[in-house]
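Structure tokens please, single chain.
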Amino acid sequence: MSRIRLLSETVASQVAAGEVVERPASVVKELVENSIDAGAHKIDVLIRRGGISFMRVIDDGSGMDRDDALLSLERHATSKIRSAADLESVETLGFRGEALPSIASVSRFRLTTRQPDAVAGTEIVVNGGKIDVVRDGGEAPGTQVEVRSLFYNVPARRKFLRAENTESRNIEHQLHLQAIGHPQVAFTFARDDRLIFQLPVTATLADRIRDLFGSDLLNQLLPIQSGKSSATRISGLIGRAGLSRQTRSQQLVFVNGRAIESPLLTGAIREGYHTALMKGQYPVTFLFLEIDPGAVDVNVHPAKREVRFRDPNGVREAIVRALQETLAGGREDWREKFRGPVPEPEGTRAVVSQTSLGGSPPCDLPQFEREFGLRGERSIEARPQFPHPSEIAGQAQTASPARTLPGPVESADGAPALQTKRPPQQFQIIGILNKLYVLMENADGLVLVDQHAAHERILFEELRRRMEEQGVPSQKLLITQTFELSPRDSDWIEQNISVLQKMGIGIESFGPNTFKIDSLPGFLNVTDGAQFMRKVIDDLKSATDRSSPLRLGEEMIAKTVCRHAVKANDPLRYLEVEKLIQDLLDCELPYCCPHGRPTMIQISNAELEKKFGRKV
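Here you go.
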């Protein structure tokens, strides 16, 4: 007796539906994508009880005639592709012809559709995959789909649905994704007959983000700069360094208009934000990739959430480059806020005394360099100390030393030397709060600078530059250590031995898949060389070809500068503070420390006026 049987069409449809229809949000996603593919300019979505009892999607797209409407409920009937070759260059959101028959097989389903020039439309009613009614309909041009009692005939699946509020939030999230990916389409979403949002057609992505998330978030986003490569065009908006979330809920990536989830792209985004994010935090991104459809395979996941790239490294490099250039460009926005002197009424500002308060900050860069074995000469000028803010008010009113230099300087022969004026200051230092926060005024309002975080960033970039130029000093091991790796990791090490050696790791091949280490970076305290190398491999695999070859060194620098940077309660002299701010503004990423914490916080004049009730 045969043990293998052919499943009935009904059971086969329900099995297939399990891959496409996971929950109500999956239904809404598939129906909205069909509406967008049909050229809809307006899509209305209504749900009840989290979509479990009722979902309706209405669009004003091209609609279908009766034959096409009936054929659309047959499995693998689609207008998007004609042959296997078309799968290699899919340009639409849907293409398999599985969504409608899958949804209809696990619900009470109603479809009405009419083409714009047709006198009458078509209405089809399906219950559990069986067509019950086919008749003329009088709906408006476009397509309307109603889905009732989802999984009524598959109770095992229905049991796994979450609470109604959870399912509603999942649907709302899917609509957010579609609305962000297609700002040229208007969306309306109602839940239990209550309007949740109504989004008009917008001309730009920024307008759609403002409609969804408000102006406060939009003002903290940067437009992608230089996001072009030979095969990938990148656009969109990303959060400034320091703007982060505890989840990936606002880390959105779209490939050819399709919202996707990809470990490759997640790793690229993390790499692009290297040292600009706190550990455990995630950036805010609205990233759009436009790639030749032939270079991306979207037919790798039943719900089309994942894609596969023909050139994954090229895509990764393009994303990292675009993010790094955009964040570096954001530095100019910061500088713009400090450009030009702050207007100051004559004779109203007290001079900041250059009298010492005693004690000097422990920013001992030579000692720091000795830890890394870097002996490069660095000129450290003598710096008068910055007084306590309480001493400022009692000083005579005169020109600020931040604005002018002292009197004429004599040359060696006694003649007055030519005095080079400093460039106009881009800020005005007011004082120090709690011996930690530098208070400054610029044209936009009040600025607070964390002196410790600022000094960390300055030392980090200086030491990273020196290590890249001079390499990392290594320390010979008393006993050479050997270890084995998997073939894949062994191949990676052999291709990157020169990079590892530049990092101060003395490593060479010692047989098949075996390596030996005879030296390690001098600033490390490592007891298990094999375990250390496995961690290095994991860390550096996530880096890109463009990232610093001294990634391990960067991590150690970030930890060490924290010990050597100016601390809270360290009194600073005036010129030290001024030099600190100038050096910070000259950094590649001045607005965050190497650990991702902000170095500066701007409080605008408008915000201050609102706090004091001067503005509503």
